[in-house]
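We were asked to recover a plausible sequence for a given structure. The inputs and outputs are reproduced exactly as logged, with field labels preserved.

PROBLEM: sequence recovery
POSITIONS: 115
GIVEN STRUCTURE:
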């Protein structure tokens, strides 16, 4: 059983690493990803604040699609400045009862701004 958990965690980390590298367009150097208790820690040197934004978005998106850990901690440096960013993930699916508008009452609407 422990081997299966390790295998799933390792597969998740490999997939997350590939996604992070792809979605940040390789703009983060010295990238390392580690598991600590119930979170994932990403360390690296970002080339710009834009690459940090890309990393945040990649962590949010991947965590929503495949929520395996409760939190992703991004420890990134940009031009000598250190950043610590925490991205939390819902580890349990949300229910329609928690939504203020019921599923049948929702409707899609497109609003266009005047030109």
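RECOVERED SEQUENCE:
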């Amino acid at each position: 059983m422990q081997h299966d958990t390790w295998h799933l965690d390792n597969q998740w980390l490999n997939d997350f690493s590939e996604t992070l590298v792809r979605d940040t367009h390789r703009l983060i150097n010295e990238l390392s990803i580690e598991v600590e208790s119930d979170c994932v820690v990403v360390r690296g040197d970002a080339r710009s604040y834009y690459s940090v934004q890309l990393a945040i978005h990649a962590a949010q998106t991947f965590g929503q699609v495949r929520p395996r850990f409760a939190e992703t901690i991004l420890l990134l440096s940009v031009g000598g400045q250190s950043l610590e960013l925490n991205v939390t993930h819902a580890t349990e699916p949300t229910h329609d009862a928690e939504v203020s508008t019921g599923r049948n009452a929702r409707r899609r609407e497109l609003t266009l701004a005047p030109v």
